[in-house]
Write a structure and sequence with these properties.
Number of strands: 13
Number of domains: 2
Pathway: Carbohydrate biosynthesis; Calvin cycle
Bound molecules: 6-O-phosphono-alpha-D-fructofuranose
CATH architecture of the largest domain: 2-Layer Sandwich
Distance between the termini: 53 Å
Helix content: 25-40%
EC number: 3.1.3.11
Protein name: Fructose-1,6-bisphosphatase class 1
CATH class of the largest domain: Alpha Beta
Structural class: alpha+beta
Catalytic activity: beta-D-fructose 1,6-bisphosphate + H2O = beta-D-fructose 6-phosphate + phosphate
Subcellular location: Cytoplasm
Length: 335
C-alpha cells in the first residue's frame, strides 16, 4: 500500500516493532489518544456555535452545562486513558497534582505515564484561531504494580518513549514520534479516520520565519533582542518574516513544514518563561529533534533538563537547526 493512503491504525500496527519492550500497550495508548482527539475535535469545531449552544458556565439548548473547552478536553483525555487501563498515571496542565490510575486487576502491569496539555492556546477558541493538544509519554521508573509517584513524572525529556500533538486547524492533524522520526496524520472528518498525509516530517535546516510575541521585546534578554534585530536586518536572505499565531502547536507545525524558529524567552515579566517544561516544551522538543531541528531552554538542550516541579516553566526556543544555532551565538555573547 502506498505510504500516503495508510490509516493511523495501519501505521501503528506496521510499526509495532518500533515500540521497544512494548507488549502492544503503547500502540493501545496511541490509539486511545486518537479516539480522544476525534471527540475533542468535534467539540472544538462546534465551539463557534456558542450563541446557539451557550457559553461556558451556561446551560446549552439541551439543558446541559456548557463546559469551558479546555476543561472538557481535559476530562475527555483523562476519561479515555483511564477507562482503558493502559496508563498508571496522568499529569495535566488542568490538574494541580498528578492522577494515579489504580487498576482493578492486581495483575495489570500498566507501565506508562502520560503528561498532557489538553487544549493549548484555548484563549484562541473565542476568536476562531487554531488550538492544539500536546502529549508526552514515559515508561514509569518506580516498581510496576505500585501507585505512581512524582518521580515517574519528573523525568528528563530525553527519556520520553513517545510524544506528539493534535492541531485543530483548517484540518485536524495528529503528529507524533516514538523516536523513529515524525509522522503526520490528517483526519477525514466525513469518516472519522486519520490518514498518513505527512510521512517523515523534517524541519528545513534553514528558515525565514521567526515566531515571537514582539510586544514583550522591551522585557527580553539582550541576546534575544539582538537576534530579533538580526532577523529584521536587510542582508542576504533577510529580513525574515514574522509569524506568530499565539498557539504553540500551530506556530511549531507551520515552522516544521516551512522552516522557522519559535521563541518564548524569559523576561522581566515572566522570569522563568511562560511555557511548561513537562507537557509543552519536552514533547515539542522531542518532535523537533526527531525532525532534525533543535530545541533549547536558553543555553541548555531542553531534553537534558532535569525537572524539579510538575508545572515548572522554562524559556523555550525551537525550530530549524541553523536558526536556533544562530540565536545561540547571540545568547552566548552575554554569558
Ligand atoms: P502570549 C498559549 O497560551 C501558549 O501557551 C502557547 O500556545 C502560545 O505560543 C503562547 O502561550 C502565547 O503566549 O504571551 O504570547 O499570548
Amino acid at each position: 500500500m502506498q505510504q500516503k493512503h495508510k490509516t493511523l491504525g495501519e501505521f501503528i500496527i506496521e510499526n509495532q516493532s518500533e515500540f521497544q519492550y512494548s507488549s502492544g500497550e503503547l500502540s493501545k495508548l496511541i490509539n486511545a489518544l486518537r479516539l480522544a482527539a476525534k471527540v475533542v475535535n468535534h467539540e472544538v469545531n462546534k465551539a463557534g456555535l456558542v450563541d446557539v449552544l451557550g457559553a461556558a458556565g451556561d446551560t446549552n439548548i439541551q439543558g446541559e452545562d456548557q463546559q469551558k473547552l479546555d476543561v472538557l478536553a481535559n476530562e475527555k483525555f483523562i476519561q479515555t486513558l483511564s477507562n482503558r487501563e493502559i496508563v498508571c498515571g496522568i499529569a495535566s496542565e488542568e490538574e494541580d497534582d498528578f492522577i494515579s490510575i489504580n487498576s482493578n486487576d492486581k495483575n495489570h502491569q500498566n507501565k506508562y505515564v502520560v503528561l498532557i496539555d489538553p487544549l493549548d492556546g484555548s484563549s484562541n477558541i473565542d476568536v476562531n484561531v487554531s488550538v492544539g493538544t500536546i502529549f508526552s509519554i514515559y515508561r514509569r521508573v518506580t516498581p510496576i504494580g505500585t501507585p505512581v509517584t512524582l518521580e515517574d513524572f519528573l523525568q528528563p525529556g530525553r527519556d520520553q518513549v513517545a510524544a506528539g500533538y493534535i492541531v485543530y486547524g483548517t484540518s485536524t492533524m495528529l503528529v507524533y514520534t516514538t523516536g523513529h522520526g515524525v509522522n503526520g496524520f490528517t483526519l477525514n472528518p466525513a469518516i472519522g479516520t486519520f490518514y498518513l498525509s505527512h510521512p517523515n516530517m523534517e524541519f528545513p535546516v534553514d528558515g525565514k520565519i521567526y515566531s515571537v510575541n514582539e510586544g514583550n521585546y522591551i522585557h527580553f534578554h539582550q541576546g534575544v533582542k539582538d537576534y530579533i534585530k538580526y532577523c529584521q536586518q536587510e542582508e542576504g536572505d533577510r529580513p525574515y518574516t514574522s509569524r506568530y499565531i499565539g498557539s504553540l502547536v500551530s506556530d511549531f507545525h507551520r515552522n516544521m513544514i516551512k522552516g522557522g524558529i519559535y521563541m518564548y524567552p524569559k523576561s522581566s515579566v515572566t522570569e522563568q518563561g511562560k511555557l511548561r517544561l513537562l507537557y509543552e516544551c519536552n514533547p515539542i522538543a522531542f518532535l523537533a529533534e526527531q525532525a532534525n531541528g533543535l530545541a533549547i531552554g536558553g543555553r541548555t538542550r531542553v531534553l537534558d533538563i532535569q525537572p524539579t516541579e510538575l508545572h515548572q516553566r522554562i524559556p523555550f526556543f525551537c525550530g530549524s537547526r541553523n536558526m536556533v544555532a544562530k540565536l545561540q551565538e547571540f545568547l552566548e555573547k552575554y554569558h
